[in-house]
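protien #1 (seq + structre)
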Amino acid sequence: MKECTLRLRRLWPLPFLFASLLGAETLPLSEQKRELLKLKREQVKEQTGTGKTSWVSPLVLSLSYTRSRDAAGSEGGLASAGVSWDQDVFRSGGIYYTVEQADASGKANLLAVDLEEAAYLKQAYTLKAQVERDRLQLQQSELTLANRDIDLIITRAKYKAGSADISELNRVTIDRDSARSDVIVVRNTLRSEVFELQKLLGSRGVDTVALPEFPLVPRDVYLQNSLELLQYTAQSRADTAAWKVTRSAYLPTLSVNAGYGYNDYRGDTLDYHGDRYSYGAVLSMPLDINSRGTVEASRLQSLQTQTAQIDRKMELEQEYDMRAATIGDYQEKIGVAEEMIAMYDDLYTFTQGQVKAGYTSSYDLESLGNSVQIQKLEKRIQHYNIQIERIALYFDTRIYKEQ
């Protein structure tokens, strides 16, 4: 396994070439799902841009008209128009960390969309591999049923001839019924898989989706490119920046303000009109009894995210090792199937001569031929099982997006 991993690492640029095959137009997803993912990414980008400039205060435009009457009975009307602006220019680092938080949150949210897309793709390609595998398994089950039918014919003849007892006939009959049930179960499973895959594909047919030969992602590449861990990294940056924004809210803030307007007063005894303006600066700092607790709670949230990332990394390491071991088991099964093919081929050649010489029936030869085909199908089935494990690892990473 170690030698295989080293070889894969040396060849690893090849999967990045493979990744370019998974372009947006060839993804096994319906048009509606692709459009939904596109809209979500656009929304995240808009929200990120807004977040980066959220510290900028708006210009306030105002128009007003007031009619008044005093105790002496004099009446007048005041029309006013103006523009004002009150802007923080220093927040003890709060402005910088507001932009940092928006940027990191945007990356985390985009990675969340990538995770959603990867989950769709993982499900689609896994189902495609399962469909191809279970089509072979259905053939295998039908061949196994054919062999159980042959066993039943032979055993029934032996029972009637007195060379087999009723318990042997019952066992063979039960085996044959079990084989029939297996065919039904595999057929139903295959139908369910096709249905689930069709929901992801929309109007596209199941057989129009190609199943590439997915590579096994090396362990270090898997951990470095894990979408979940990358999202945790971005979220940790966002939480750290949020903590510093919270902290800066209780430190000195410098703001500037300016205003300009025009007043027009018309009254019974007095008329006036003209410009007005103002400008100034304010240095302030809140004194809040809850400031320490609020800042500490924000800091603890940042630490939680960092701890969760470490914990998840350990889980992913274990998951990778488990899947790599499972792939090794499937490869071992392929080796067993090759040994069985060699044995059945030898027996088939021998039995073929026995049938021609009249020493045995053609049923034995047919059963051995079926057994050879069953083992050949087994090799292909295990190949798809290996692909299913590789698909799970591949779409846990951002590699599928590399172009």
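ok now protien #2
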Amino acid sequence: MVGAYPEPAHSHVRIDLQARLDCIAAMIADENAAARTSRLISVLFEDIAESQADRLSSNQRQVRLLQKALELGRWPAHFVTTCRHCKVLSDVTVSRQDFQDSIQSQCPASCQLTLNGQTLTFRAPTGIEEKTVLEDAGLGSAALLGILHVPRDASPAANGCEDGEALPAVSDEDADALLVKILEECSPPVGVLNLDCPSCQNQIRFWFDSIDWISRHVWSAIDEVTVLARAFGWTEEAICALPQSRRELYLKEARGMVQ
């Protein structure tokens, strides 16, 4: 179950105003989800360009986002989740350390699955491959499966059926099921915790949404710029150029003027 998140608390790591605005722009860009994720990673990590984020596997992209999310807010963090067994709401407290196993786990470069009696090798998709499929309505799950197929005697980084081992014909429905298995084997989700329900003692899965958590801790940038621009007539560029301590003083004054 996905938890209900509390109101954002101040982070032990501060993201400057311009970076927070860039994060917001990345998250609301008029692009598909994979493209927005690449842009967001490039904003959050100065050493990763958007083109490099595109080449990361789906698991690597999840790990980068979780790493940054764990730097934001106060931890341990408190959430509310619903048990799928007894339907009772429960308070859940999680710490950064609870997520370390999913960050540090090494995912295999490839996995083997049986298709129409053949044992074939597949790898996890990269960001650019997810973007390609999402952008081209003519490409379905079967097409992506062909891209992820690793022919015999090829490295896991190789693309598609280029070396003589043809991928058997498969429907999009069957391809969907195979893609789920590939992601489970090569790109297991990060930020997932198995917890015991305090009411019925059954195990529940808690899914931490890194992008939603990051969003909650950067969205205040819009309010900061709006308040200062209305109060003093400053441009966004001028507001972003202010040191954080000065900006907080002006914000206090501007909010006092409104009251």
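Residues 1-12, 158-164 have pLDDT under 50 and may be disordered.
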